[in-house]
Write a structure and sequence with these properties.
- This protein is of the alpha+beta class.
- Helix content is 38%, strand content 17%.
- It is built from 17 helices and 14 strands.
- The strands form 2 sheets. It has an 8-stranded mixed beta sheet. The chain has a 6-stranded mixed beta sheet with strand order 12-11-13-10-9-14.
- Helix 10 packs antiparallel against helix 12.
- The longest helix has 23 residues.
- The radius of gyration is 31 Å and the shape is elongated.
- The structure holds adenosine-5'-diphosphate and magnesium ion.
- The site of magnesium ion has 6 residues, from helix 2 and helix 3.
Amino acid sequence: MVDRKTEIEPIDGTPNKRMFLSIISDYNLRTGLCELVDNAIDLWMSGDRKNSLGVSIDLDADRQLISVKDNAGGVKRHELSVLIAPGESKNDLAAEVIGVFGVGGKRAGIALAEHVTIKTRFQEEESSELNITQDWLQTEDWVLPAYAIPDVEPGTTQVDMSHLRKSLRSEDIDELRTHLGETYNWFVNQGCTITVNGVPVVPIGFETWAFPPGYGPRLSRFEVDMGRDGKLSIELTGGLIRDRDPEKDNYGVYFYCNHRLIVKEERTRNVGYFVSGEAGVPHTDASLCRVIARMQGPAQLMPWNSSKNGINQGHLAFQQIRPRLIPLVSYFSSLSRRLKDDWDGHVFRHDVGEIQEVPATDIAGKRPVLPALPRTNKPRAERYKAENKVQLENKPWTLGLIESLAMVDVAERQRFETKNRISLILLDSTFEIALKEFIVHRQDLFPPKEYNDAEIRRLFGQRHLVTDAILKKMPALKPLFDTANHYYNQRNKLIHERATVDVADSDIKNYRRTVEHLLNSLFDLNF
Ligand SMILES: Nc1ncnc2c1ncn2[C@@H]1O[C@H](COP(=O)(O)OP(=O)(O)O)[C@@H](O)[C@H]1O
Ligand SMILES: [Mg+2]
């Protein structure tokens, strides 16, 4: 025990080589090779771009060798450590580049192969070579021998990988070609050439919009202010697509950061899927919706993950983009569903038109700038069933509840003088049956041992017993149950009191919303 702070032997904070194990663990052929391409692109983009950039990737599945060579400019001899020391980078954090973490290149080589040789020559200066071996990775010495070698081509860097950690299959090569074409579409269109085994990669974009009259793609631009560190410029484009491929499920949200594709076809809660009232459960019917998000700005502000193959949903920049992204995803998903009777006629044949720019401030609201969705002429029951297709497949017992609500719509359109009375009875029975179905089918919450036939009969003898049982598990439903109770009493008056009560239109509207809300909370149904 000491009684005051005193200095002791300083601690050596040199990293252990084992750290490479963690930084290579989630890399694969694609993420790894893209890191090497990223590095060449970053250097080329930050220069005068007078010479066209060439990156050649050679994959030899027979000999299990990979080689990546570029003419971006090479590395100066006295700066070779940037190629091996984790965290070292020459990139400016505030520049519009891809590399920012200072680990990509090192991670990639080591993740793919046990033996990595890097040859590089800065402009016309001397050529150097580094060898990263399994032996070096297993010793605790961070010093790496470097060599002077006979000259390679000026301004080139070549990474040769052998003793691959995961064997290379010939199928990987075609997949990689597509992946590179998608990831570097913009750069290839700017004149970069990326070849895989000598064959140039073809750029692949995703802006294959359809232009249905009145419902063409919408674009919104805005800035995300990240304070002292600067701003990101955001461009969101949403629309219906003409290149739907049912095998590939090529819809959802696509993110580019500084022109490089980070993820495509994202269909997570993050971007509004699986949330009712937003894009809903991803389903073929909604598969014409595509939203492309492009972000430009300082690399350190980008919401990408460290492997650059995903968006970090907790990131402050993404949090600011999300409220404008979700309305687009929701709107075009609904539009896709509403037009699905005739995609050929309503969507695919409209292949020319203009993308319409809308103010970003309006997009964030309740979709006011997007034209009202077309009405479908289908009977309500059909529409509700279509909207809830997935739920109906998983919970067929909800069909009766859905059709009861459609029946309320039918009643509303009749010229009966007492139609509101009929609707009230229908709504109230639907409410009660929904509670029963919930108790019977959610055996995780209401185990059949405890909730046997006799118990169900007892509960349903008095409705407050049912609501109490459910509220114990789902207290958030209390306000809904209070509203329903009011209408339950009103319905009882129809039965028990001498004078018949009047039921106003507004009551039916209100109760209907309550029942819809309940069906959504209990069974995820949408109306
Ligand atoms: N192919 C290359 N040509 C020239 N310089 C390179 C190349 N690859 C990597 N470098 C240099 O190595 C540095 C570190 O690369 P990397 O580990 O990928 O981290 P980052 O890309 O985040 O800077 C880069 O900033 C760059 O200066
Ligand atoms: Mg990099």
